[in-house]
Design brief:
This protein is mostly helical and 73 residues long.
């Protein structure tokens, strides 16, 4: 009796589970709507501009705080 319930609750093997996960992932990727290349280039440009702006702000604040620290010490 114990063996019968054990075999019913047994999970499939590791490789079957991994294979099923890959199959599920690839079927999901087929349904994705991929952006056009021009859209990717534009959004990448926007991201780079925003990162550069934050870099300038953080660098400016760092320089200002360094200058103030130099006045104190």
């Amino acid at each position: 009796m114990a063996n019968a319930t054990k075999s019913k609750n047994k999970k499939p093997g590791f490789f079957r589970r991994v294979g099923a996960k890959f199959k599920e992932t690839f079927s999901e990727l087929k349904r994705v709507t991929w952006p056009k290349f021009s859209t990717v280039v534009k959004t990448t440009g926007v991201v780079l501009v925003v990162v550069a702006a934050f870099l300038a702000v953080v660098t400016g604040v760092d320089a200002l705080l360094g200058w103030l620290l130099g006045l104190i010490s």
